């Protein structure tokens, strides 16, 4: 557990904006240095974009990323966790990108955390991670259930791979990352001001 | 209940990005035509900004708004609901803006919905709405409890004024707006794919 952890969260056109925003915001609240990196769709006709880059997310919200994704600038020597959000089109871009696949493998090899939520869990498959417990959005379960020990728990922790299901599990996903990066006390500290309804199970 | 309702959501520098994003995204999922309008801080030294405008939100995420706020373009003849998110600095800008106060009064007078969450509920006070049930983030309770029938429920519906508490209540807040604009069936329809953990109380 680093005294001042750092997180990298990837974003692309079509990323689910609630999953991105909840994860980023909660990490910042916990004092984690959080950086977003925009991954370009290699199939897009025009690769040059604005600087800094903006993603048009799954429900039309435009979000400014902190930088363009670059494998050399995003490695496990610089961050303690890499996070891959969902949103069908965004997850296709992220999971299908060879440099993102290589990035995921490098984080696993260096024993850093890898977080995937919703269709972002497809990146576990494209990065050829070993068979292990995992969850995802139900819409991509059929693609993943043969290659992983598929679970329907809201958040699945398999050593350093943390997976989750969708926007409705983004809060417990982000709070789990906070706990793993900063400890259970920090998780409790930031939970109060979020004002969850009583009986909320996370 | 309109067949194709429309929602206006205000945003400013310092707006809480989870509250903005969850509400906007959920409304779009329900088929509501949703438009965000950027409100400039009248105390800022430079009022001219980029076009389209971008807000720097409370935890550093930059979000592109669909247009600049303009009272004449944002009235209750054009939208079925106006929503005011929280985030301390953003809510100060929104609640303190005379044209936003006038906008809130016009929606109330025309019997359209007004949604406020977190510190956004301060706008009920600055718009001088009548004493009625209301909630807010706990951090601004002391400012509001004399002028309203203060509640600590996650979502408070007082005729056409819907108020809520913080990021942790943004999902039930947005789902309540969907139910009021589109009916309970639409709320159920969009709830499933969000994949809330079982036992989630909304």
From TrEMBL, chains A, B:
| PANTHER family named in the record | PARKINSON DISEASE PROTEIN 7 HOMOLOG (PTHR48094:SF12), PROTEIN/NUCLEIC ACID DEGLYCASE DJ-1-RELATED (PTHR48094)
Residue span, DJ-1/PfpI domain: 7-179
Instruction: Cite the Pfam families for this sequence.
Output: DJ-1_PfpI
What does the record give as EC number? 4.2.1.130
Q: Name one GO cellular component term.
A: mitochondrion
Name of the protein:
D-lactate dehydratase
Q: What SUPFAM superfamilies does this protein map onto? A: Class I glutamine amidotransferase-like
Catalyzed reaction equations: methylglyoxal + H2O = (R)-lactate + H(+)
Q: Which GO terms describe its biological process?
A: glyoxal metabolic process; response to oxidative stress
Recorded hits in InterPro entries, A to Z, give: Class_I_gatase-like, DJ-1, DJ-1/PfpI, Prot/Nucl_acid_deglycase
What NCBIfam families does the entry give? Answer: not_thiJ (TIGR01383)
Q: Which Gene3D superfamilies match?
A: 3.40.50.880
Example GO molecular function term? glyoxalase III activity
């Amino acid at each position: 557990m680093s005294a001042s952890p750092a997180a990298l969260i990837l974003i692309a056109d079509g990323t689910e904006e609630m999953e991105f925003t909840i994860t980023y915001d909660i990490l910042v609240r916990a004092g984690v240095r959080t950086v977003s990196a925009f991954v370009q769709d290699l199939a897009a006709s025009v690769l040059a974009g604005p600087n800094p880059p903006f993603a048009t997310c799954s429900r039309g919200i435009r979000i400014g990323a902190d930088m363009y994704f670059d494998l050399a600038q995003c490695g496990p020597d610089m961050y303690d966790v890499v996070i891959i959000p969902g949103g069908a089109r965004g997850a296709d871009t992220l999971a299908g990108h060879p440099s993102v696949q290589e990035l995921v493998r490098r984080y696993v090899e260096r024993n850093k955390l890898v977080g995937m939520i919703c269709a972002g869990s497809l990146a576990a498959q494209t990065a050829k991670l070993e068979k292990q417990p995992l969850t995802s959005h139900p819409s991509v379960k059929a693609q993943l259930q043969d290659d992983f020990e598929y679970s329907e728990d809201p958040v699945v922790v398999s050593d350093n791979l943390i997976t989750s299901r969708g926007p409705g599990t983004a809060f417990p996903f982000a709070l789990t990352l906070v706990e793993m990066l900063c400890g259970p006390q920090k998780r409790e500290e930031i939970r109060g001001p979020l004002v969850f309804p009583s009986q909320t199970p996370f």
